[in-house]
Amino acid sequence: MKHTLGIAITLLTISSATLADNEMEKEPGLFTGKKGAFTILKTDNLTAEAQPQKHAEQQGNTSVEDIIPTAPALSKKAEFALFKKWKEHKENNTAQYQEFLLWLEYKEISH
Amino acid sequence: MKKTALFLAIGSSLLVTNSAIADVSVYGRITYNMLKDDTSKDVYFGRHEFAESNFGLKGTFDYGNVKFGAQLEVGLDEGVSNVLHTEGNSRTRIQELSIAGDFGKVKLGTGAGITWIISDVDQSGTWWSDPLGMSQRFGASRRGPAAESQTPLVQAQSIFNERIIYESPTFLDGAKFYAQMSEASGYEVAIKYVANGWRVNIWNVDYGDVDRDDDPQANIDENATAGFLGATEGRGILAGYKHSSGVNFTATYGTADQVDDSTREYLNWKLGYTKDKHAVSISMGNYSSEDAAGVSGADHTRTTLAYNFKPLAGVQLWAQATKGDTDDQESFNALVLGGLVKF
């Protein structure tokens, strides 16, 4: 469990950068729904695509256990925030979520 | 499947990959009004002083824990059909670059001042954002009884300008600190707190050397004054609370120091009720002044009844009636019907 707090902090840090500063921009749109804007481009992992070799090296050389920081138990609030972030990745089927599926597969085989 | 495993896995993915996400979107809204006041026999069609139709383009790029952003937004007035129209009917509202991370956010470029950003909420006399700002900005229609701009509270704030802004991360479960350096040595600082139904905004503006420039709004109204709306400095506080029942109350107080060494004082309160798609409110604004010799000027008041209706997400319709008095003499009445569609 101590591992999860470190991850939660990472995820929450990313989330805090997305807070809108103009409340009127948060209003939904008639045609655009909750987001209030038409998405004309959305791309995941641009860096990985631009640097496939480096990305592959990172994937191959780094294990989950190696990079997770030591941390105390996760609070309910942080855990819930983490869950929301995970669900967002799942709904958007992001590269990170694909990585998650791959990791599950790995855990299945390694046990 | 254990949730711990889920978080661990997705988190590990974020950590081991040099993740980047680009997101580009376009947005816009159409705002239109029919205004009638007793300063003219004509009905005015179009925007209000600050209620512009607009469109924009914005994009963000996530790189690890940092998010880069860019935004371009253009505002439009009522268009070329206006027979008095002699200039272009668009203006740049926003053209800025930004970078955000766990340190907060920095924005560079042209856009809304921080005092405008933090106050651009709940101006209608309802808890909803209102493009007209009829009560709080003291705007009743585009012109006052002497054809002056009816937005004196704006003297205590800035609107759009060229600036660099620092916005802190959220602290105390809902507070943010803002600082801005503007062109011509102007600066602004502000604190915004929004949590648990409460809203408190506090701000201070120094217009720097730009206070000697022409008043941009007055240019639109063709009644130019000395300085930026005549003010050299402004400050204010907004405090509000919305109960879970929908009842809400907001009060705003601001002062401005004028170029001619006179001072102005603004006070506004608003009682509203918001329920589902409907919102009603009554609000009252007052402003008074003192000249450089300390002699008091006329007391002006505006009382506004407002009704807002949101039939669909992204659609807002309003009817607002305002009665104005100067030194207890009825001087100004206005009725506005309007609406907006956000794309």
Q: Which labels suit this protein?
A:
heterodimer, A: 111 residues, mainly alpha, 6 helices, disordered N terminus, B: 343 residues, 16-stranded antiparallel barrel, 3 helices, 17 strands
Q: Could you characterize the architecture of this molecule?
A:
The complex is a heterodimer of chains A (111) and B (343). With 111 residues, chain A is mainly α. Chain A is 60% helix and 6% strand. Chain A is built from 6 helices and 1 strand; from the N terminus they run αβααααα. Chain A has helices at 2-16, 46-50, 52-61, 64-67, 76-92, 95-110, and one strand at 38-44. Chain A is flat. In chain A, 21% of the residues are buried. Chain B is mostly beta strands and 343 residues long. In chain B, a hairpin with a 7-residue loop joins strand 7 and strand 8 (175-182). The two termini of chain B are 41 Å apart. Mean pLDDT of chain B is 75; it is low at 12-18, 118-152 and 215-228. At the A-B interface, helix 1, strand 1, helix 2, helix 3 and helix 5 of A face helix 1, strand 1 and strand 3 of B. Strand 1 (38-44) of chain A pairs antiparallel with strand 1 of chain B, so a sheet runs across the interface.
Q: How many DSSP H or I helices of chain B?
A: 3
Based on the structure, what is the oligomeric state of the protein chains?
heterodimer
Helix content of chain B: under 10%
Low-confidence segments of chain A: 1-22, 48-72
Write the H/E string of chain A, N to C. Answer: HEHHHHH
Task: Describe the largest sheet of chain A.
Answer: none
Please tell me how large the radius of gyration of chain B is. 21 Å
N- and C-termini, Cα separation of chain A = 19 Å
Biggest interface between chains? A-B, 65 and 54 residues
Mean pLDDT of chain A: 62
Largest sheet of chain B: 16 strands, antiparallel, barrel
Percent helix of chain A:
55-70%
Low-pLDDT stretches of chain B: 12-18, 118-152, 215-228
Please give the number of β-strands of chain B: 17
